[in-house]
Design a protein that fits this description.
Layout lengths: L1 H13 L11 H8 L4 H11 L4 E8 L4 H8 L1 H10 L1 E8 L4 H9 L5 E4 L17 H7 L1 H7 L9 E2 L2 E2 L2 E2 L11 E5 H7 L9 H14 L4 E4 L4 H5 L8 E2 L7 E4 L8 E2 L4 H15 L6 H4 L1 H9 L3 E6 L18 E4 L7 E2 L6 E4 L7 H11 L3 H9 L6 E3 L5 E3 L8 H4 L13 H8 L6 E2 L13 H19 L5 H15 L1 H19 L2
Parallel strand pairs: 1-2, 1-3, 8-12, 14-18
Antiparallel strand pairs: 3-15, 4-5, 6-15, 7-12, 7-13, 9-10, 10-11, 16-17
Helix pairs in contact: 2-5, 4-5, 8-15, 19-20
Length: 510
Amino acid sequence: MRKRVLACFLGLVMTAAALAGCGASGKGAAESAANGAEASGEQAAETSDQEVAELRLIMYGDTSSRRDEFFKNEFHDAVLEDLNIDLTVEFLPWGSDTSVSTMLASGERFAVWYILSNYDWHTKGYLAEIDESLLEERLPDLIRTRGENNGFECAKYNGKVYVVPFGNKPYSGSMQYFDVRGDILDELGYAPEDVNTLEKLEEVMAKTKETHPEMRTVMNLDFLPYALWSYCGEGTRSVNEANDFVYVNEEEEGDQVYSYFESEGFKNLCGITSRWAELGYINKDLLTNPSQSDADWNAANCLARNGMPGSLISTSLKTSNPNAYETMVSIGDQAKLKNKDYDWGIAVSAADQENVARWLDLFNWMYKDQEHFNFCVYGVEGTDYEVNEDGSITKLVSDSFIDSWFLEAIPYNTYDPSFSQETIEKYEHWDDDAVFSKLTGFSFDTTPVTTELAMLTSIYDEKLKPMAWGLLDYEENIDSVIADLKAAGLDTYIAEYQKQFSEFYAQKNQ
């Protein structure tokens, strides 16, 4: 579930970004692949001489009649014509991890969306290893669009590549910031840079509660510790996922990991959130009906949530309120961390190892040029979208194809005319002062502690999450909850985490 929350949040932020340029029909995309840069032209010539490969791609998300039609017809035909790949595209709901894991274990042949740090399939031998020598040979355009700062280190496990990362956009500071309604700040007389302390943020919350009593104050609290580290403990800390049981101190030397829920940092977080809950800033329905908070945000009826840089170029709220827009505020003085340089990538099943090179051809084809990119994201020009005089995109259908947040690459971006050049430059240079986290590239193999993790997660869902969100009293419950965690194997879990992280850290810093 935690993976789904992260992915859905990323999707909500990025699907609204205006990523445009000159468009292409399926026929135009196919023709363009034969007329591109020399390296890609040679690649196209090579693939045209190969036998037809039957490949199966699994993506997450909802389907629709037009989406199905596009992937069965125009997209399928363009890929077949250009690459001699007979591609079948399937969609599974977010949260289908168990089903996909079973499919991988049974030896099915396919490629699937993947984040190395969030899953353990590569540690179980379920995924094909991707020879690094193939990357430059087969992915010249994908590498070009990802830029010089976005490599493959975050896609490696024990020095081997198991996933091809997609996209190029700012990745640092994710969830360390609050995504706040800029129009509400304007109304109350605040500039984003003015809201730089906890006191100022709570001042804005209080005034919003007075002037807009019907409005939800905050949502998406899973990652709240990221944004409030400066007020929960000294220095900058990182957890690997929203409900991880350990953290690292980014400002100290070494590989030490610490027990998060036994820390002063967690105690201090609960002190802040319990105050927010008492003041009505945190609603109880965040636990019982989380979809309502999503609906409130999308309806422009919420002040703030944990955010990421993509919020700067989001226009999603304008459908509900033309005057609404998002901006970012940072609370405290923690370092801006970057723990990965991609949202999602695509991994190939071990059973399909022989087709890795053909998969790389497909991935590169998606980034061949602006026309291919638009085709993958927006569909067929004239049928699914139009290009406006200012270069922005007008969608003619509500359907999505390959999600824009998944493919986004700054070289192919154009922006909604409502965004100032200052905002665009801030977005594109967001990572300039970023610091890589100690956890960058680390993937915890949970296999040795599967039983312990199941019991710990159950306690988290029942007790720790309500406590972290200010809806269960910390002082009255923490001792019994820690005793339950210990009985469930917390110390065993932390010891295994420490062992694996120390091995990773030593290898990374040798």
